[in-house]
Specification:
The chain is an alpha+beta fold. The chain contains eleven helices and 29 strands. The protein folds into four domains: 104 residues, Immunoglobulin-like (Sandwich); 127 residues, Immunoglobulin-like; 117 residues; 98 residues, no CATH class. The strands form nine sheets. Strands 10, 11, 13, 14 and 15 form a five-stranded antiparallel beta sheet that branches. Strands 21, 22, 23, 24 and 25 form a five-stranded antiparallel beta sheet that branches. The longest helix is centred in the C-terminal third of the chain and has 28 residues. The radius of gyration is 36 Å and the shape is elongated. The N and C termini lie far apart (73 Å).
């Protein structure tokens, strides 16, 4: 091919296959104050849509990149279809002066060099338009497992709008929302400020120093006109404010604490409420009571549900599923646990339910305390003699087969009732004196609790409610690993060995701790839980005392 032809062909191919050229690269605005946000907009037209990954390393010297958004739109120019790709980059100047925005490579082209003029705010301007953040931790040196309240306050003496607050945080901490935002006014250094206050509760499970990221605020304030009496509309200023950093020094539980469960609280109460108790308890009767634990300064998820245990040859105790809740009263979280118990009497005589003791740590006085419920004793009578041994005539030396008279007629007439009562007593004795009763009760209670949990989890996932989904997922984990103290999604992650479920739990975790409002979708999590539900629970350990199935099916394998 002739050299000139080769050159023409190359130019023609370059025209048709060129990825495009940067149409615009502009700053909005071109002049800002320190602490204000500028927006860098880059647009590129191309016949082949491709949102290139921009290399913004050159901006890091003079700017902090806050956010990058990109999109593609189709345009028709001169009967040719183009894909207009756009990038919007929010940048925060690191200092005042004339700052250079270096060329940025987009595909095979570069944006032009731009400059941004950054001015210092004058004291007069600050006095008229002052916006800043304060953060505070209460306490700043909590124990491991003790909630620390993190308070963020936005103070402003000029109207703000379209704003969002990002609370302080750190990886590995459990986060609880502390009620609604509060608004009030205060006087600070002779100036009136409006205050927006927000609180979160952070819980660290291990001791050590934790550096929290600063709180930050992004919003709009109205910019003052350059000239007095100017009637042209002035665009608002986009401002960014951050707070000082916070450092928590988390302490180990004290060595003198002697309890089984570490419970750092400001106040803790335990109570027991009995159902109506018959005055003449007999073998086979049952007693019911509700145990309530209420802790000020601890969420309900941390309260133990294994306090009451009772094993005796005279009675059996059957616990129901514990119900936990947390609420905020003033500045403090109040956790509550309620659990019902049934006590079934199997032998006559005196039965004593042991005392319930719960040791906890008073963080206000830094001392161990004990919450206690005293033991309680009941007297249980045997069944009436006439029902326990209907053959009184044999004890009198009479032959029941030859007995005559009214007594014989009475026994014959009441024989169906006597047989029914005897069968009931025999059945009760078999249930209460063998492991079958314990096994059946445990299975029924577990099944009911599992169904309630799955219904609640389905509702939370399909409603895309991450807080409720977290609560039910934790309950789901507690049912599968009852011996473990499951109180975080990361503990479930570590035990499932199910990569897809782990990924969805991580998404749920990020949605809970996200700084912005989350658009979490829970349908996928629910589908994975349903896929895992028919399986044998992770870490399943069969009870050595369990009985075989009542109706075993040959040829079928259990999962």
């Amino acid at each position: 091919m002739h050299p000139v032809s080769k050159i023409c062909l190359a130019l023609l191919l370059a025209h048709f296959y060129s990825p495009g050229q940067a149409q615009t690269a502009i700053l909005q605005p071109e002049q800002v104050f320190e602490g204000d946000i500028a927006e860098l907009v880059i647009e590129l037209d191309s016949k082949i849509p491709s949102l290139y990954a921009l290399d913004l390393a050159g901006l890091e010297t003079s700017f902090e990149v806050l956010n990058v958004q990109s999109r593609i739109a189709r345009t028709l120019e001169a009967n040719e279809l183009f894909n207009r790709m756009q990038w919007k980059i929010d940048i925060l100047p690191r200092r005042s002066g004339r700052l250079i925005i270096p060329p940025i490579k987009v595909g095979s082209v570069f944006t032009p060099e731009l400059s941004l003029e950054v001015s210092r705010q004058t004291p007069a301007l600050i006095a008229r338009q002052d916006v800043f953040l304060e953060v505070e931790a209460q306490p700043q040196n909590p124990y491991a497992g003790q909630p620390a309240r993190i308070i963020t306050r936005l103070l402003h003496n000029t109207p703000v709008s379209d704003g969002s607050i990002l609370e302080p945080g750190a990886d590995g901490l459990e986060v609880y929302r502390s009620g609604r935002d509060s608004r009030y006014s205060i006087n600070r250094n002779g100036k009136e400020f409006n205050v927006l206050e927000r609180s979160i509760v952070l819980v660290a499970q291990s001791a050590g120093a934790i550096n929290l990221s600063p709180a930050s605020y992004r919003g709009l304030i109205q910019q003052e006109a350059v000239a007095a009496g100017a009637e042209s509309t002035v665009p608002p200023r986009r401002i960014y404010r951050d707070s000082e950093s916070l450092r928590l020094q988390v302490r180990h539980p004290p060595a003198e604490f002697s309890g089984n469960t570490w419970l750092p609280a400001r106040q803790l109460n335990i109570s027991r409420h009995w159902d109506a108790i018959a005055e003449d308890l007999k073998v086979g009767d049952s007693l019911g009571f509700k145990l309530t634990i209420e802790a000020r300064g601890l969420p309900g998820e941390t309260l133990p549900s294994d306090l009451v245990t009772g094993r005796s040859d005279k009675f059996r105790m059957y616990p129901d599923q514990a119900a936990r809740s947390s609420k905020y009263q003033g500045d403090e979280v109040i956790g509550r646990l309620e659990q019902r118990f049934a006590v079934v009497v199997s032998q006559p005589g005196e039965i004593t339910l042991p005392a319930t003791i719960l040791k906890w740590w008073d963080v206000s006085e830094d001392v161990e305390r004990v919450a206690r419920l005293e033991s309680r004793t009941f007297r249980v009578a045997n069944l009436p003699q006439k029902w326990s041994d209907p053959s009184d005539s044999s004890r009198a030396g009479l032959n029941p087969a030859l007995a005559t008279g009214p007594a014989t007629v009475s026994l014959r007439n009441h024989w169906p009732w006597i047989a029914l009562v005897a069968a009931s007593i025999t059945g009760m004795a078999l249930l209460f004196r063998t492991p079958m009763r314990r096994q059946l009760s445990r299975k029924i209670s577990s099944k009911l609790a599992s169904r309630r949990n799955l219904r609640a989890l389905r509702k939370a996932c399909l409603a895309n409610h991450p807080q409720n989904a977290r609560r039910e997922m934790l309950e789901w984990g507690r049912q599968r690993w009852p011996a473990d103290n499951i109180n975080s999604l990361k503990q479930i992650d570590a035990r499932t060995g199910f990569p897809q479920l782990d990924e969805e739990l991580s998404r749920l975790d990020r949605a809970l701790y996200a700084k912005h409002s989350s658009s979490w979708q829970g349908q996928r999590l629910w589908q994975l839980v349903m896929a895992a539900a028919p399986r044998r629970p992770f870490g399943f350990d069969p009870d050595p005392d369990s009985l075989p199935g009542l109706y075993p099916q040959r040829g079928l394998s259990t999962r």
